[in-house]
Amino acid sequence: MPVREGLFTADPPRLVGGRCPGCGAPHFPMRPTCPYCASDGARLVELSPTGTLWAWTAVNSPPPGYRGTTPFGFGVVELPEGLRVVTRLTEPDPARLSAGQPMRLEIVPLHTDDEGNEVVTYAFAPDRGGPGGAGAR
Amino acid sequence: MSHVEVAGIGLHPFGRFPDTSITDMGVFAVQGALGEAGVGRGGFQAAFCGTAYGGVASGHKVLGALGMTGMPIVDVEAGCASGSAALMLAAGAIAAGQYDTVLVFGIEKMPKGIIRSSFFDTWQEEAGLAATPAYFALRAQRLMQTSGVTSAHLAQVVVKNRRHGARNPDAMFRSEVAAADVLASRVVCDPLRLFMLCTPNEGAAAVVLRRSVPSGPDPRAVRLAAAVLRSHLPGPVLSESTPLAGLTDDSVPAASSLAAADAFARAALGPGDLDVVECQDTDAARELLSYEELGLCPPGGAAALLESGATELGGRLPVNPSGGLLSKGEPLGASGLGQVVELVRQLRGEAGPRQVPGASVGLAHTVGRGANAGVVILTR
User: Which among B114, B123, B234 is the nearest to A3, CB-wise?
Assistant: First the structure.
């Protein structure tokens, strides 16, 4: 089950955002009102599953309320529609990441909750296939 | 036009005080400020109390313990800028003619470790997105990528502030550190190491503001030339508003820049008029970013300003002569007023071994989650 409903779809992996009818800017998560220009009536859009790495680090000890494992990667990925998304990264070693490298969205296990459900969330992984080469080797 | 002056200051040292309640820390600071101002029961018409973690009626508990209630007492939460926000409200009420004398204080008792903030939704905590130092780290990395700031510069900020803090008996850390020690401390979130991050802790600070009396100016009086609070404009992904996403337009000004511009306009002063600055150094990179956002240097010029030695005690524009949050620790509600207390001491010439000679214009800057950015300018 998703860590929160409405943030993403699992198959295919896509973040669910909004696009403003007024200024045209995308946003995430989806809100009916544009956070950038205050226009109402934003349209639900699937965001691009690929982007480039804009900033990154790793979290080495569990932050408050965290239910997953450490260390984990953490950063910002820039999507082609002009949106920078704060996200977990599948790579926990900052030295193995570099500025501008291609990244691809994945839905990843986070933890198993008290009822035994596997909770999943969104994360970006280095896109080994390169630009446009989904999974190609 | 009437002015607002600082009639008295009080401070409970910042640190860890397991045997002292948050209320008693507040009492200590408030008594100090009221005593200096010569103000007793009935001598102030309102009180504003900055606190982020104090809980319900924190300010009432302090003034109740002193038998000084009856006036409006308002708790003010604005994250790291809570004290600055309380000061802005008090100064504005005096300037508007609502009150003549107002008590402003800030109190905090923070748990150890990474701050747990009700700002984040449960799912964000669950997913690891409430990792506050990680956001600082991303901002530090961007600064390093875009402006030539290196790990050596981050270490130099810590060395500088800890050197200053060693001269401040109210600081939590009063020992100097070498750059090698900073760079050998454990990585919290790359590129930030333990010594590069301030410690959330405990403390209290208080200030009595009053309308200036034109007939008989107190020779020790420090004038409050501006007390400004601004929030963020939307867009930047690493803004202190901590959004989940942002846009690629890098021209949107930071909340701190907005507050600084307002404060300089209100005081009819500019960055070149400053003698001393206390700025938000939650982490070492945050201090360098503050140089840029406050206009102390051109964009991209923070490393050069630091390297020049200008921001050290003895330099052209000492920054954080108190030791900053890196030496004092950060009790959120008290930190902004703690800066004001330091600047008042500096402007009165009472800062002892960390005195900036002849200081007559000082600026205090706080910024944190919200976003909330506060800029205060004091003159004498």
Answer: B123
